[in-house]
What we know:
This protein has three domains: 1-60; 62-156, Type II secretion system, protein E, N-terminal domain (GMP Synthetase, Chain A, domain 3, 2-Layer Sandwich), CATH 3.30.300.160; 161-354, no CATH class. It has helices spanning 8-14, 20-33, 37-43, 49-60, 74-77, 82-88, 110-120, 131-160, 200-209, 345-354; strands at 90-95, 99-104, 123-128, 168-173, 177-184, 187-195, 214-220, 225-235, 243-246, 250-252, 257-259, 262-264, 269-271, 280-283, 294-297, 308-317, 334-343. It is α/β, with parallel strands linked by helices. Strands 4, 5, 6, 7, 8, 10 and 12 form a seven-stranded mixed β-sheet that branches. A seven-stranded mixed β-sheet has the order 13-11-14-15-9-16-17. Strands 1-2-3 form a three-stranded mixed β-sheet.
Amino acid sequence: MSNKWIDIGTLLLEYGLINNDDLLEGLKLQKESGLRLGEALVKLGRVSMDDIDWVLSKQLDIPFVIVEDIVPNLELLSKFEKDFLIGNRILPLYETDDQISIVAEDPLNKTAIGFIEDSFSKKVNVSTGSGSKIEELLKNTFKDLVLPDLLSALKNITERIKGTSFYRIDFLLAEHACKISIFGSGILKNMMTIKGAFSKEDICSAFDEMKTPFLYDHASNGERTFLTAYPLKNKFDMPSLPAITGEYGLMLPGDIFFADAHVHGLHKVFHFDNPVHGYNYFLTKRNTLAFEKSVYVIDAAPEDLKKCYVKIFVPSKCPSCSGTGCAACKGLGYEFQKFEGMYSSGELRERLNKG
Length: 355
């Protein structure tokens, strides 16, 4: 790599990509916005990022790579964290016993390049290429790598909880793994942990593949992300509202409805903080009777409903395994009895206590 340094503006002038007026305009925007000069010129539409990358390759005497022509090295990619590569727009190409070759949007990113050198104890050979195309290729490749495992796990879980009182799926996303649990009727059950770096977008993609919209809440502390999803299934016309449900997939009434959670994959859903009286309301968390036409999950059902339609699956410990999980209960530790009819809250509690 050449040690000769010429500023990017001079290089762009020398290669005829901008004129003096363009440069002055870019310098003015750079001063006002704090952007780097190259970024300012791109924002002004005087050059493209491909132009910047190509000029940098000339400036530093390194190859400029056409990213679209690269076939990703999946074995090498698996040795890196997805967020590190995407965040720095670095695409590993190949490695030998003592070297790793990469394409980087910013070949002067000493922090990232130094991290790779320290992690692998190898010399890093740098070329440059389009950052946006590097990011696009990485996202598509990682999606293809991790989505099949996540999709397979999600299909397995949703198949096992059909006809049960589990209606919520929890995802704990850590740096190297995703822990998946299920919840319903006061029972939290850990199902499995799958290896890989997953994101909220990966979970959305998996549900999209299954053609399943869902309500969700999520939170993150910077190291781990928690996402709790309420799949929306089993659309039918309820014979009476309000209603209490408790089975896989929250019920989908045939009308616009509210939810006190975010929504993915479904239109005409209003959030709890913007209600319209008279529409169906999906209560997922709050123990308040908000409207006359309401649908509640069993864990959040009010205690003072006079008469409501009930369709739930009541859990009891599996007699074959005493709750530890076996083939008879699909590893859930519980068996479930369907319970349906018109009841008041008091009648429902009495019936459940007798069961």
